[in-house]
Amino acid sequence: MTTAHNSQNGSPAALPQRLKEELKAALRSKDDIRRDTIRQIMAEYPKLTIPITLESGKKTTRLKQFAEISDDDIVAIVRGLAKSEQTVLEMTGRETSKYLEILQEYLPRMADEQTIVAWIRDNIDFSQYANKMQAMGVIMKHYGKTADGKMVNTILKNWQ
């Protein structure tokens, strides 16, 4: 049902358009959970603003137009919704939910432990650091938001 779009495919903001198309598809197929999840993401759009300065010199913000919403904006919204859903699931003792699974479809694939370990082995010279935890910044800068900081921390703590 979902298509593999991302910002690397040449289009500057594939996710907002993808959400719009998938909302239509969910409405047609009567997929209530997907429809409601996408609507929840879109309900966060009014929180996306651009800072502006008025003629009087006063600083304020204005809402982003649909065309100005980037993939990064959508990813940030989805991350926030997924984090709050994970908190709710932890409190109720459940592992996952259909809502969380749908949200995760819109997030970039996270680097797995083996990939991170291999990259560290190939690119990090621990003799340059007084403490191996100092390499954390370099690793996180390389992976950006696609690496879990807790996982990288654990890898470094257990590094032999």
Mean pLDDT: 87
What distance lies between the first and last C-alpha atoms, to the nearest angstrom?
44 Å
Helix content: 40-55%
Q: How is the main sheet built?
A: 2 strands, antiparallel
Our count of domains comes out at: 2
Given the C-alpha coordinates, what overall shape results?
A: extended
- Output the radius of gyration: 20 Å
| Uncertain stretches | 1-12
Count of discrete alpha- or pi-helical segments spanning 4 or more residues? 7
Structural class: mainly alpha
The spatial strand order of the largest sheet comes to: 1-2
Beta content comes to 5-15%
- Listing every helix as H and every strand as E from the N terminus to the C terminus, the arrangement reads HHEEHHHHH
Number of E-state strands: 2
Describe what you observe in this structure.
The chain has 160 residues and is mainly alpha-helical. It has two domains: 7-104, no CATH class; 113-157, no CATH class. It has seven helices and two strands, in the order ααββααααα. It has helices spanning 14-29, 32-42, 71-92, 98-104, 113-123, 136-143, 149-157, and strands at 49-53, 59-63. A two-stranded antiparallel ribbon has the order 1-2. β1 (49-53) and β2 form a beta hairpin. α3 (71-92) packs antiparallel against α4 (98-104). It is extended and about 55 Å long. The N and C termini lie far apart (44 Å). Residues 1-12 have low confidence and may be disordered.
